[in-house]
Every structure is written in structure tokens, then in C-alpha cells.
Amino acid sequence: MMLVLGIDPGSLTTGYGLVEKKENRLIYVGAGKISLPSSLPFTERIHKIFESLLEIIQTYQPKEMSIEDIFFAKNVKSALKIGHARGAALIAAIQGGLKIFEYTPLQIKQSVVGYGRATKEQVRSMVKIILKIDTQFSLDTSDALAIAICHHNWVRFENTIT
Predict the structure, then answer these.
(1) Concatenated DSSP letters for 2-46?
(2) What CA–CA distance (Å, rounded) separates 2 from 149?
(3) Where do the domains of the chain lie?
(4) What CATH number belongs to 2-161?
């Protein structure tokens, strides 16, 4: 049994998803999003992301966290803000004693959908099929669950080649 916390970082909305592996099955444990008003100063939003993730870590006690790796964005300012949100998540994970794993958007989409250029909606559909759930998640939340699923798939793959 291994519980993984997947994080889809964002300065306004950070998605999180918890997926556990029991025997050879992936099981949905919980998911949601940390939504913050744009009127809140940026530094306070980053602190709220940190505090909220620390609370989630303390509540669910995952052992590992998977997070989307930095990607090249067209908008430098938004990429920097995502980087700050990522930093808040990484510090929360370290403070919570979690091992951290990073995956590119391409790795996540290939792992969950089998296609690196899949849309967010396609990812959400596959997450629901893989976890056998019918909940209509926000795209941020389903992305976070996809990141957790990706980690379980990569760990399984790495264990077969070592």
C-alpha cells in the first residue's frame, strides 16, 4: 500500500489528488483544489497554498508527492507565478517528510492517456476510468489525480527494470 499526493500547482488554483495503490489497483482517496481570490496579494496566496498543503499532508499522511515539473510557457509572468506555487508545494512536502517526484506534462499525459498531446478533458476522462469514479472534477483536480496516477505507473515501471 502506498499513498501518493499529486499536485497541479497554480497561483490562483492548485489542484491536489490522493491515489493509493493496493495490490495492483489504484484507489481514489481524495482530491480537491485550493482556490484563492486574485484580490488576495500574491505573497499571501503562496503562503495559503503552503499552509493548505501542509494540512492535507498532515490529514492524509501520504509518503510521496508527485508534482508537475516546470514547463516552457508562452507567458513568462504566469510561468514565474506557477514556479512560486510549485515552491510552496515543495516546501510543504519537505516539511511533511515526503519524498518528491517530478514529471513533465508529456510524461503525465502519456502515462494516463497514452498520448502526449492529450487535452485536459481527455486526461479527466481517463482519470475517471482508471480510478473507477464518476465524480466531475475540475480540470485542476483531475490533473493532480493524473500526476499521482503517473507516479504509480512510473514506480511500477522502474521496479520492473531494476
Answers:
(1) EEEEEEE--SSEEEEEEEEEETTEEEEEEEEEEE--TTS-HHHHH
(2) 12
(3) 2-161
(4) 3.30.420.10
Query: Catalytic residue numbers?
Result: 8, 68, 140
Condensed to tens digits (0 to 9), the pLDDT of residues 26-55 reads 999 999 999 999 999 999 999 999 999 999
Q: What is the pTM (predicted TM-score) of this model?
A: 0.93
Cβ 129 vs Cβ 120: under 8 Å = no
Core vs surface per residue 14-25: b (16+ CB within 10 A) or e: bbbbbbbbeeee
* pLDDT 10s digits, 47-91: 999 999 999 999 999 999 999 987 666 788 888 889 999 999 999
Q: Please, which residues bridge with residue 100 across strands?
A: 65
